[in-house]
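Here's what a typical entry looks like (DUF7963 domain-containing protein):
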Amino acid sequence: MSAEEAGGASAEASGSGSAPAGAAMVPGGEEAAARKRYDALMQVRAKAVKGKGAWYWAHLEPVLVPPPGSGVPPKAARLRCVLCAATFSASNPSRTASEHLKRGACPNFAAQQGAAAQPHQAMTVSAASSVVPISSIPPSSQRRHSTGGGGRKRHALAAAYAAVEAAASQHVVVGDPSSYSPTPPTPPALPAPRQVLSGGRGDLGALARLEDSVKRLKSPVASPGAMLPRQQAEAALALLAEWFLESSGSVSLASAEHPKLKAFLRQVGLPELSRAELAGARLNARFAEARADAAARIREARFFQLAADGWREQVVTLSVNLPNGASVFQRAVPTPAPASSDYAEQLMLEAISSVSASSELHHCAGIVADRFGSKALRDLEHKHPWMLNLACQVHGLSRLVRDMARELPLFHSASANCAKMAAYFNAAPTVRALLHKHQVQEHGHAMLLRVAAPPFDRAAAFAMLEDILTSARPLQLAVHEESYKLVCIDDPAAREVGSMVQKVAFWTEVEAAHSLVKLITDMVKEMEAERPLVGQCLPLWEDLRGKVRGWCRKFNVDEGIAMNVVEVRFRKSYHPAWSAAFILDPLYLIKDVSGRYLPPFKYLTPEQDKDVDRLITRLVSPEEAHLALMELMKWRSEGLDPLYAQAVQVRQPDPSTGKMRIANKQSSRLVWETCLSDLKSLGKVAVRLIFLHATAKGFRCAPPMSRWLTAPGSSAAGIARAQRLVYVAANSKLERRDFSNDDDKDVELLTEGDDDMLTEATASVDPSSV
């Protein structure tokens, strides 16, 4: 037990008045923080004991603990176990409950649970006897000779069991005549011969059956024989089957045969659902429905964009983006790793031909793929000049992190030092114990530090930097321990790491590297969630430039080197369609001094201005090229009527995030098709251009799906069934516009714990009252 824990235990042992006495003193900074935390914990516990919170608050009590010594106000809020009086850090109550109560560390918790179970067993027997009085049952002819009162009790219990079984068998179940069972109901069985209980382990089965019989008598509505009407049951079962199919990859079809699910279906009056039925007739019917719906959507669209995602993984997913903002899943294809450029080109052309009516490739306005700088995209655009083939910007920004790590010396130094520090503390038992001790005191749990080995990987390096920053104070406390100084006498690595931990420059480098990676990673996550269109690429990169400049000023980094890395990556990702879409999309029109809304040509470089002209002339026929450029000049000088321009740019708050969003994303295209119908040649280019997506992110195959499609030795029928299952699940997600990952949601939920409740409670405390 630490000194702080010992002080907390002694304070609690001396009486519950220690905490209020300390709280009554005029608090300083630490005392105020402790009191605020204590009040927040008390609020959470007050809600929990009323049935509105976690179970463990009945066993954990917040206390204010003064440091060792008399007459000093409390400076820490901790949790005390009411069963054994042990105290713990209050940083993570759910973890404390799991480790102390559920894992058996508390000597009194298991005993209390066992004592609570005994009255329940007694109550079960008494409930049975209240249903059928023992005195009303004639004595059994099979009574054995026994001594004392134990024999009489066993015979009475056997008689009660037989009577209850007889009553249960006579209970009439009212079912619908059109229920699923085609056979007539079985007549009630005769009462079974009365059992003679031995008083040993063999009675457990009989007691369980007795309890089930009593429950059936008390709850006749929940009888498994009471079936729903046929139409209602079929509708409910169809919804359940669709949920299984649309959640495949996250929910196993084998779960349909889980005993608890079968019991639930019986309780609500539904027949069982087998996995063979799910993967057979129901899957075929749902697949046919989804395919017909997707085909109808594509037929109604004048053109589409093909999205290819997953080129660096086992399975490539091909989807179709439509002008109305909808996306339709096309298919998932196992690919060799890595796939060649020729194979990628052939696969994407086949997908376009299968989507286009009568193999008319002109219906495809372009491709967006996650393989950055792929030769296949350039070759396809060269062979089919009406296509605009884009590299996924999520992939481009992810590569920017690697570029920064390679070019900025700060990254080399921070990542190398962090890897050395993490490896040393993980490997040396003595210093690892010191670190774990202070991690427990600060965070409530101990952990190893993750190590990112070269070459630089964004996810691994970010995790390592985050671990080092999270454990900054435990590391500093550990190297100041006398036992660590003794290790330093004979260990030069310990001296080097200890010196590193105490340097301000080291922590500044780590924070700077972590901050830049987080800055870019947050932009990547936002892109994945919002799926920006091609017209947003130039503003997004300009926003990135501003954030990197601010980062350079904050951490005193050479702005020239950092901005040069950004510009090199920008040139590799840039496509002329960015500039053209930015100019032609009414969403980005700017109001000038005369009140007109004009395209933002002034934000383009001279080269980007020329790209607009070249792209427009490429996307129209040679006969229309001159006319299209004339219309572009008119668009440049006159723009759009202010009333329509303002209507296009109307924004409203997103109910889920609170951010301001465009009220109608389709208005940009609709303006060109209606209000600007006199600009016919330019309008043809605009409507094909401004709806294109800048990211390939959409539906991504979950690991189980990848295994279905790539399992060695699978039959053709099995692969076809897996393809149908993936198709149904993918189109369901795309229809709901749900691009999140269920596993990520579960991780987020399970790592939250009670911290949100504590944060809310802390925020609700008035600082003036502390």
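Residues 575-689 form one domain.

More examples are in the samples folder.
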